[in-house]
Write a structure and sequence with these properties.
- By secondary structure, the protein is mainly β.
- The protein has a single domain (2-60), classed as Nuclear Transport Factor 2, Chain: A (Roll).
- The chain has no helices and four strands.
- Strands 1-2-3-4 form a four-stranded antiparallel β-sheet, with no helix packed on it.
Length: 64
Amino acid sequence: MRIERIVAEAGQAVSWIRFTNGDEVNVGISFFTGDERGLITGVTDFWPEPYEPPADRGHLTGRF
């Protein structure tokens, strides 16, 4: 995985990542919200392309 960009200000941040699964290259965008202590309180992910996680990571994911 390679982090391409991170932009942040008080209470919020966004990251753009690029990762590979074999020969396939995917990107994802994550939005983070935080509290006054600097702890992350929420994460919203956007994945532009459908992505099937590797079988050994399936227990860490959910489908909506």
